[in-house]
Amino acid sequence: MAYGIDAFSFLNRKFKVFILLIFGTILVVSWATVNRNRSVVANEARISQRVLEDMKENLQKYNIETFDEKLKPLELRIANLENKERKYPPVKYLSEKDRKRILVTGGAGFVGSHLVDALLMAGHEVTVVDNFFTGRKRNIEHWIGHENFELLNHDIVEPVLLEVDQIYHLASPASPPNYMYNPIKTIKTNTLGTLNMLGLAKRVHARLLLASTSEVYGDPEEHPQREEYWGHVNPIGPRACYDEGKRVAETMCYAYAKQDHVEVRVARIFNTFGPRMHMNDGRVVSNFIMQALEGKPLTVYGSGKQTRSFQYISDLVNGLILLMNSDFSQPVNIGNPVEYTIMEFAEMISATVGGKTMISNVAKMEDDPQRRKPDISRARKYLGWEPKVPLLVGLNRTIAYFKKELDKSKKSKLIDL
Ligand SMILES: NC(=O)c1ccc[n+]([C@@H]2O[C@H](COP(=O)([O-])OP(=O)(O)OC[C@H]3O[C@@H](n4cnc5c(N)ncnc54)[C@H](O)[C@@H]3O)[C@@H](O)[C@H]2O)c1
Asked: Where is the NAD(P)-binding domain positioned along the sequence (predicted)?
């Protein structure tokens, strides 16, 4: 201590006062800071308390908690979507020059959805216009969100304005139960709808391909059917809304080609089958497969001696794309010329599905064509096209698809219960 007193003793009085003042100031400033902090904390606590009270009041008043709870799964879904990059089928890169903007009417249907797959994978930009009368979003859902894909829920009986280079015009109910369900609507779709699409093609200088049908030959008296054959159609029968609808749609195409120089292509499509066809559309392929899978007798209308030829969906899609991009503007049959009687076909499906399937004959349908077989010389000559997929290969793929669909619907019935 003595050493300490001695140590300070050499400092003069003024300096000692100065040091005391500094210590004093430090003490006063520290006391003020502590006090200020105390009051800030108290203030914050007061505010938090008020916020909390407000929140409680609002939560009770507006039931926000329940609302937040409801939003949670959605937020989770968004987070999952952001984390997981969506996987799309592989798409070829096409330069600006080669990439086309393509409209597919009826693109959510059986044929349309397969065509959309092929066009997108080839690198084009595709817009689907569909009113979902017989089509399903599920058929094209694997493209939703892709930058080259657009989907419009629209009825083609009303006009639509789009900028496109090509139009594949497929929109129309295609199976007898579907087109007979509302014959006037079927006529409107094939007449007014086709006029709207031709008007669009004219405005934007797009090429239009019409998905016509072997039904334009009606119950043919010429066999096999060549494109030059004018057909044998009952204009007032139950199928007329479709048959005559397609016939006048063809007439409209060639009128627009002649008068307004619209580039048209007409595909006369024969019976086509494959995955994504409707399970209950009443057509022979789906009828037989469903009946065989459910262990029911296969219903054959009439004697079963009437013939059909069946092409697999991928063959049709190739044919449509080749025709659209060809220089040939007259109608072209796209179908498989290998002919089977309905009875042979029933036996083939029964054997492929397995099990013991009975065949039951019921009364002949009105206006049911007796023979159907395309002459495909034009397609061979002008498109270099012919079907490649053998019937049995196509049938196996289609049966596998139907089995999966049946399993899904069984599972969803269980969930409903
Ligand atoms: N599948 C065949 O065996 C076959 C044979 C000959 C011709 N075709 C023709 O091919 C085309 C496609 O047939 P599919 O078997 O895919 O039939 P589908 O019923 O599966 O597809 C037709 C699509 O057109 C849509 N559509 C119907 N009316 C419409 C409207 N007014 N506006 C917008 N969209 C509409 C439907 O919702 C559906 O998505 C049809 O024009 C049909 O006449 C098909």
From this structure: 103-392
